[in-house]
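Record 1 of the preview.
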Amino acid sequence: MLSAKNLFTVQERQKIIQSICEAEKRTSAEIRVHIDNFCWINPVKKAQGIFLKQQMHHTQHRNGVLFYISVWHRKLAIIGDKGIYEKVNKQFWDELVHHLISSLKENKHKAETLCECISKVGQALSTYFPASNENPNELSDEISY
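->
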């Protein structure tokens, strides 16, 4: 049975982590992916709780982004910190969510689509939060569960 830990193969997980690393090279923003089995509440509220638990709101520029996926309840959310919403419009985030939902529903190219979305976030945020010579990796790039 499909679960959070086996939604992606080992190779796909490595590609996702690599996508996060590549995206973060272009921006000072921090990107995380969290995968759950269950989401009994609104996925945005669940993602907000995980965002706080992982202390993503403690980044220097308040520019963390979390991709949240609930496997069994088929829910997802992409949320950002205060600095993100001040710069990037809602339409951008809505389009990413729609694209990712379509991929997960079809169960085709889901890892590639997630990597593509991560790359788009890195590209969009590089305009507002460019990488600098001192671009510390403030948060882990590993997928959390």
